[in-house]
Amino acid sequence: MLLGTVLVLLLAGAAPASSHSALRGTDPDDGSVLKQAPRHVTLTFTESVGLLDDSFRVFGPDQRRVHTDEATHADGRSDTARVGLPGKLAQGTYTVAWRVVSADSHPVSGAFSFSVGNPSATTGQLDTGPAEDPLTGGLHDAARYLAYLAAALLVGLAAFALLCRPADTSPLRRPLVAAWWTLLGSTVVLLLLRAPYEAGTGPAAAFDAAALGRTLTGRPGEALLARLIVLLLTAVFLIRLSRRRGPEERPAALAIGTALAAALALTWAAAEHASAGIQVPLAMTSSVLHLLATGVWLGGLVALLLTLRRSAGGDLPEVVPRFSRIAFAAVIVLAVTGLYQSWRGLGSLSALTGTAYGRLLLAKLAAICVLLLVAGYSRRWTALIAAPAVPARAAVPAPVPQPVGAPAEGHEAAEGPGTGEAGPASEESEEPEPPGGPVKPGSGDPGIRSRLRRSVLVEVAVAAVVLMITTVLTGTLPSRAQAEAAQQAPVGALPPTTEITVPFDTGTGSVTGSGKVQITLDPARVGENGIQALVYGSDRGLVAVPEVRITFSLPSRDVGPIDAELADRGGYWSTNAVNLPLAGNWRMKTTVRVSDVDQVSVERRVRVKP
């Protein structure tokens, strides 16, 4: 019931998207020169994004901020952001600084420029402000790391107490309480810092009531609120667990504890990479299992270390093997879910070395390999400490001297003829084994326990490094999303083989006086291109006109006009030899002459790829 409630709260409205949003394109295009001022600025992303009060800042040619409308989603599409511009914009270059929040809770920002009429003569770079406040970013990252660490300890310590069943759980109580308070405090800090972290402002903005209210209605804020609720329920559970009287209550406690741990892990999965991208339900399940296995293994290591240091050790031969088996199962879960999440985030093997996400993943894998090597070393001492100790055999006391004539104990007297003395003892009697015989090491051997403690301590230290890399990794753009953003054409771009429809109207009123020109540009890349142009009249039929002329210019680089020099092929106009030397947003001017005195020219933007 608890898991269902949290799931409904966090996943309402969730839709598949590319994990960690990346900009797919802008309209106007970056660096474009427009004849007329646009009415809107539109951004398109690889996933749904959340808008902020200050998502757009537009600066004019005089480097002053331009008044804009409130940011909205274009045409109701959640993967877009749009802002309206004033009706009249002066000629010159405009800079647009933008900032949105991706579906996996991470803010994304950037800037681009476009020009109206002619580019501005000034070359000074405009300061659009920092991408984030360093102090806010540092505090936010520290709180995220503490939250991961505290959650692993909380889950691992409780799981160790319930599954490994040590006779004395007193060494685990204070660390368990400290982990709970640390997770509570870091969650509150994350909730307060959410607004300034999204907006890129200083920590003082955390106390803005309006900003905090917006945080509580967003997905990341809802996830943090759900975490606080789960923590309060966990506190009640831990109090009841400390008063547990008998083993018959253990199954119920284990079921409730598992549900709370899964709900806690879900508050991370529902607001980070797993909540957006391909295969969202499977990714959410994998993320929850991964987080739980991390807590059971790494938090359990801390519990084992505390038990080895402070416990009397009488039940260690039972407790240590139990944890060894549980840790092995957790490592299997981590391997399976980690492999799936790596594939989902990377997208290709080349991304392992070619992207920041891939390099961080390699660093995490290297640290995990070190952790596994140390764990294998620990298992050697685990096997020894699990073996029962065999004490030295006690020495057999020497026989007590018997009075003359009395039979020896355990033997019949051998009387010689005519004598009353005892005969010699049996030759089968065994000599007693000397004291200090061989001892089989076990839990009572302080040397074995000391070596296991040192080995587990190294595991804990390496595990802390793994968690630190994981914290950075969850805030890094996945390679798959980066590749998707690079592969998809920007807004307003044309596919490699493009059909462009250019309407015209000379005002003569004849069938050939108005219509459209259908132009095919192939392949719309730098170098030689082919063009075909078909002219349709007002009756939508093909018509013959005296001339069709197409020229290309690239104002941002002072290139052109380049005449395509179309030839009449008897029903259509074409050429296979127009050379476009540079990539960029070209201005294609189409002139249609329908008589000796009537002609019209229409311009369209064409993007030429490298």
In N-to-C order, the SSE pattern is HEEEEEEEEEHHHHHHHHHHHEEEEEEEEE
> What's the Cα radius of gyration?
38 Å
Query: Any low-confidence stretches, pLDDT <50, length ≥5?
Result: 1-19, 392-398, 400-444, 488-497
Rough outline:
elongated
- Biggest sheet features: 6 strands, mixed
Helical proportion, percent range? 40-55%
Mean pLDDT: 75
- Structural class of the helix and strand makeup? alpha+beta
User: How many helical elements?
Assistant: 12
Strand percentage: 15-25%
First-to-last CA distance: 56 Å
According to DSSP, the number of beta strands is 18
Q: Which descriptors would you attach to this protein?
A:
single chain; about 600 residues; alpha+beta; six-stranded mixed beta sheet; five-stranded antiparallel beta sheet; 18 strands; elongated; disordered N terminus
In a nutshell, what does this entry contain?
Helices cover 42% and strands 19% of the residues. The protein contains twelve helices and 18 strands.
Q: Could you characterize the architecture of this molecule?
A:
This protein has 610 residues and is an alpha+beta fold. Helix content is 42%, strand content 19%. The chain contains 12 helices and 18 strands. The strands form 4 sheets. Strands 2, 4, 5, 6, 8 and 9 form a 6-stranded mixed β-sheet that branches. A hairpin with a 4-residue loop joins β13 and β14. α2 packs antiparallel against α6 and α5 packs antiparallel against α6. It is elongated.
